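[job 4417] fold queue: 2 targets
>>> target A
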Amino acid sequence: MALLLALSVLLSAAACSDDDPLADGGKDPNGPTSDIVDKVSQYEARKFDGQKRGDVFYEIYVRSFADSDGDGIGDLRGVTSKLDYLDDLGVAGIWLMPIYATGSEHGYDVVDYREVCRDYGSMEDMEQLIDEAHKRKIRVILDFVPNHTSQRCQWFREACLSTDNPYRGFYHFSTTKYDRWYPVTKGTTSYFYQGEFDRSMPDLNYGPAATCASSPTFKAMTDAAKFWIDKGVDGFRLDAVKHIYNNSTSDENPTFLNRFYTEINRYFQGRSALGFKEVYMVGECWMQTEQVAPYYKGLPALFDFDFWDKYLLYAIQNSHAKWFPKDMIDTERAFAAYRTDFIQASKLSNHDQNRTRSAIGGSEALSLQKAKIAAAVLLTASGSPYIYYGEEIGMLGDKARSDNGNTGDRNVRTPMLWAPSANDPVRPTWIKSVVNNDISVGSVKSQADNEKSIYNVYRKFLRLRNTYPALAQGYITLPEDFDVADAKNKQVMAFCRRAGEERLLVIHNVADHPSTYTINHAIKQPIADMNRVTVKRIDDMRHEVELPAYSSIIIEL
């Protein structure tokens, strides 16, 4: 424990028109205009100065986000039409799931890394989206797939024709059939190729990790990434990084990622429209903390799946949150061992996982309350938060259950609800959802004027994170008076955030019944809460905090 507290002190010192939605430059005429969000808390927080310190990203599945032309499919112009909405929400960056020419609706089987999917629009639409996002100081990062291509990709088609084709070395071929290897159907039909995810997605071959940067495949892929840097994108989310080389726990993948990041970052220098010195690159490495940590040798940012899957989801489902801050401290220590300036990309759900409310379970009303407290924790804890589209309105989605006859990934990628169904012209219709409707979820428009809506919880806590450097930056520490032996308050988590002289105490009650928390030191003032938390002064050095069910408070120390 002494070592843990010493580490905590050290880390905190380091940081504790209606027809054309684009007619007016992208402003959404149906976007939220109410200031009701300022009434979410009974306390007076510092006025937001417009600076997005929180660096919060927002993940978008373009096909399901906003449809600008009425063909039923979300598109790039639709995303552009909602940039004001995203700006108002407080996001500093958007991650677009694959927007390339593809052979599927999901887009992860890329046919051409330099072409835009026809369903989504044109290259001009993409360029306009980037320009309009930058006008709002919003970064744009693209999903980039370095592990495999589509079997329809020209590289693969040519590679199959003969053993001496220039593209032959781009993929893995063998005359022996191994598990997840598939027969070549044209040309060299006596061979098999590797397709770890599916036969439609042949794996790329970069040669030995130590010399990968000299391979033609590496040059072709980095050239594709540079193409998008020239278009103005600010970075990439790298898909499935633990699969690039088959041994996910060896040094091969971090070595490759280091070479890839270094090459793209060097090219990025001086090209940022927003003045960033380094390219933003975050990896999807779906493993536990101790296995993810070594990947920081390759990339500055990685998704922390344990944040939700292992720790926060458990805390909320079991009303046992006391040790969540310690778990985060342990996580940060594991990451810092490999990169001191690591970016812990925290999240709740994403495009591959059940949506937050569905993962939590319970009745519609109960799952909504739990999703609100999950959002409050995400946006007050350490890390660099990502929000999956629709989470801010509490959309539902369970991959194992039928929704209008659909199961699997489609159920967590259904259309965004912008307005009540009778008046939502930009809602994509390529797929229908019965689960997400005007009663079970509502819409952005219907929630905007409801101070108790989950939308306003997200908007409020995003505003707070963007306002207070202590919430936006730095590490998480345990309170000075943290009581290891106190078993009665296990439903309460308390942690400190610090930046410079600013120090905040954050307290969350994740249970369906009230609790109290005693502060045994001086405080300045409460600055924000959720669900009417009260702070009673006993004396200068003691305060009693009364926490209703599923409530939160932030106190300045």
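>>> target B
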Amino acid sequence: MNYETIYQIVTVLIPACICFFAAKGIIHYFQLESYQFPGYYHTLNRNPVHSYLPGVCAAAASALLILLLPSPDRQQGSGSLILWLLAALFVLLACLLGFVIAKLLTVKKAKKPFVFTDRIKRLYVVYALVLLGIAALVYHLRGWKLISMLWPLLLPAVVALAGLLAWPIEKLISEMYFRDARRKLLSNPNLIRIGLTGSYGKTTVKHILGTILSEKYPTLITPASFNTPMGVTRAIRERLTPSYQIFVGEMGARHVGDIKEMCRLVRPTIGIITSVGPQHLETFKTIERVAKTKYELIDALPEKDSRSYFYDDGSYCLDMYNKTAKTKTLCGRNPDTCDVWCDQVTVSPEGTTFMLHIKNKGQIQCQTKLLGDHSVQNILLAVAVASDLKLTLKQIAHGIEKLQPVKNRLELMKNAGGFTIINDAFNSNPVGAKAALEVLRQFPQRRIIITPGMVELGDREAEYNRIFGTQMKDCADIAIIIGKNRATPILEGLKESGFDPANIHRVDSLDDSTKLLHSIVHPGDTVLYENDLPDHYQEA
């Protein structure tokens, strides 16, 4: 092979080698968005520096190496070994430059780090084949030298193409695991299968339900926030054994049809809808579409021998209850309309006490470490299910007393500095944020809130964040707002409500908020961390 051919091959391989390594941060974003293309493109646009700059740097590095690569006329008479060593050197340099680009432009200290799962490994194989395919195509084009310098600018699109080509493979693999999990789930005809969904509160209700039901039955709940088809599939395949009598599957959704797909796996006979609200409006667009998707759970229940549970929110959930013809239960505060209700609710920094009433079964005094009036709503839904599964009032009350806060969801923590932390950093939505503020209000002054605001609220995101700012007035004494553009409506709401300007602080990052907090916090203060944005929502 003459050097002219080697020169052309190396020229088209240089950008492929650089891009293979430089795309790590972009592929990480794809992983964070659960390999969903709409979310991936939204993330790219939210993070232009980390999304598009790797391609720009890859193009610049490709141009530099291609221009430095000795041309054929300068290598006439060189031995073949020298030519091959020269080619190998430039390919190695390309790989090294790609690695450096990834190192410099990948998000540092990621809260959810890049994980080389089996799926990522398969994606990288497809991605490598795509890069080789591009190199082969460019090799046969006119202007191959210039094209080799420029095509890395399309790096995010190349990653998307690899994801698209890998999708049929992943669909085949996931369907195989999916069917195996379903077979395992249905192999025990006596297993009670419970499906649980909602805009918010579903993970908390799941843990409450698991704790109470465990007073009588061996109960398996999906761990952490495993609420996608593959997450629930994994939980079933790895954790479900014949000893369990009840399985509780949390069902998350970002698109219409997601819950229907989850029900195809779980085949629930009991369905619980915790709430309907403006969550994931970025993908759902309207609350009506959210409600329609949540109701897919009720539609999937068998006509006979099934039961559905709703909370009387006076809105979407109540409408769902009213239109449901299948056996149903309503929970809430109104004894005239609800099957399970409570009164005499007392909320304090130590927890919550209330009188629990179950229709035709009686009443019992309950106490829990869970914070906030809204925690009672979650408890009532779990109690309704437990009652229908024949738990006694004493078993239910004992289970309620054992409840512990779910990690990062209004979790009370004592700091070595003598102040109290309320950790509600897992997620945030308009209803949950307001409830968290009400919890903070129960604590003595001084009360400090640290928050970046709320996301995934579509076109109404700024409006909800502004309202959030106004709600802080009577619940907090000091507000530390994290971020740049997203912080603006919260700050506007604070000023609109008459919050003391001297006690309003805006910082760029969570690290900056920690430094500021340590400079102003006193022993005895209470600090609420409301939401902690994932890496793909950070503002550059």
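[job 4417] complete. Note on B: The first helix runs from residue 3 to 22.
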